[in-house]
Model the fold of this input.
Amino acid sequence: MELPEANETLSRRRFFVNGIKVVAGLLGLGLGIPLVGFFIAPALKKEQHDWIAIADLNLMNAGEPAKVTYQYTRRDGWKTAETRKTAFVVKHADGKITALTNKCTHLGCGVEWNASSKQFTCPCHGGVFDIQGNVTAGPPPKPLTRLMVKVEVNKIFIKDAQQ
Amino acid sequence: MSRIYKFLDDRLNLSPLLKEIADHQVPDHANPLKTPTALIYCFGGICLFILLLQILTGVFLMLYYVPSPDNAYAGVNYIQNELAFGGLVRGIHRVGASAAVVMVFLHMMRVVLTGSYKNPRELNWIVGIVLLLTVMGFCFTGYLLPWDQKAYWATTVGVNMVESIPLVGNFLAAALRGGSEVGMLTLVRFYVVHVMFLPALLVIFLAAHFFMVRRQGISRPL
Ligand code: FES
Done:
């Protein structure tokens, strides 16, 4: 296992040690790549999302986020699973509609709308967000995630994907 | 690499150990470079290589296999047809199983032909037989896991063979099945035997096998 001297000729022993290393390396790669790929394959699958009708534009009051839960089926391996999520649909003063996930950007607790202070508060570590979803206090590093929204004939649709 | 090795060697004095494991003289009669027919002495090593492959691919297959009647077939189908490299990983495990049986058998034939089972190596022969039975156990239990028709009926037939043993047959068959019919309990116990009990047995007896080979040396041919 000691290194050969600089001008030493390649001994038979050295030749076989090198050969073994090459074969071991090839085997390692030939097995390693498929096995790692096999392990991470589900992480590389893209999930497809559909538009979900979630609220009625006529029933929304500007400046009052509406808490909505929505449900969709996703593929879970070889099965399908129902997923339930919560979002806040907000009609802003200028009539624009946004949808924010209720998932705190700090460590994922569910934020709630506090009607008296007019902000979203997180129960876990005191994160606070304004009605736009921007952080105003606490540890969250970025604004609440905005979901894709569209309005069709007074119905608000969202898609469970980041805007 | 060699610096990491040197670091460890300086502290833990690994070199003598390594010499003992992988760096010792192979007798001429077992060295294929000197005696071409000595290739038959490689069969044991090939068995080990295949078993290592089986352990490796088996551990990865466990990521996606759920041993329940509702999920087993669907999960194997998912591995085989939907996952990247799934067909390859499962293929290695499936073909490897057959290859293991073939190589273990050839290895055993070599030992018989060279008379290596004789005094003083009788104990290692017995350990070898246990290993052969362990490999057969792997095959028998693994065959049920895809939970398809072939798996179900092969296990039904296999367990019915056990049933024909006088006196204890019925009891043994029921213990294997976990009841009177091949069902959920059978699947779970075959799975657990396949991935826990037998691997433990395999590792223990392989260790004994190798220890004895190193201790007693490679036998001379007749
Ligand atoms: S998870 Fe919301 S503040 Fe930590």
